[in-house]
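Deliverable D5.2: sample structural annotation.
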Amino acid sequence: MVDELTSGTQRHQARLRSNKPLTAPGAAEEIRELVLEVSDPDFHFGPGQSIAVVVPGPHELGHAEHVRFYNIADVHVLRDGNPEVAICVRRCEYLDEYSGERYEGVASKYLCELPEGAEVTLAGPVGLAFEVPEDRSANLLLIGLGTGIAPFRAFLRHIYRNLGGWEGQVRLFHGAKTGLELVYMNDHQNDIAEYLDEATFRAIEALSPRPQWDEPPALDEALKAHEEEVWRLLQAPNTWVYVAGIADVRKMLDRVLAEFAGSAESWARRKAELVAGGRWAEVVY
């Protein structure tokens, strides 16, 4: 299974430099940021790509290794030339539909409990990178849920730090169950705040109205509250759209944007134009 998922990708050895929580104490979900030093100066990455973490076995089902992909949140090159890769990991569990027992996710348990200094095997990066428009006056609409913020963190760092700024409008819509779980956007860890002084950037947060009932973040309501601006951006010929996070975000977007367009058919035509023009990109799981 690992060979199929990572076929054609290069493996790298990495050392865990830090493992810290991104969610605040008391949050219902545990999300951590792991920073890994890759022992390969030639490791290259584009915003929107993922890296595979190979969990050594043997595992319960008999396979020797278990693999899990994570969006890359950042890459920083050290003085010795080795890159540091940051990933967001949410501690997961699943319910066995036959036994009713709960089990921890293999990769998330392994990574969340990994001590600093540990050696890790990576494969990749994989997936198409988010293409950055050559025209810096292009508008950028970024929409994500949960750990879907990871590729946007890397994307924002690239356009504002590496490129030195952006002239077009940049709008980030991001959702989580509670404010404690807004990754990179809470009091505990707020990297996104460094871009709030940029005249072209705005971040719009969306929380669950009833997190205790496990209701999803009201990202649809956040978009509706900014309907005029969002629809204006979507109609502009120089707007690029980037979507990241759980696959449910795709269904929600189609439903809400169909309302903005007046019908599902009208939105389908507009979305098809964006896709055909290379101005719609998704990293969903």
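Annotation notes: The chain has a mean pLDDT of 86. The radius of gyration is 19 Å.
The annotation will be released with the project's public dataset once the embargo ends.
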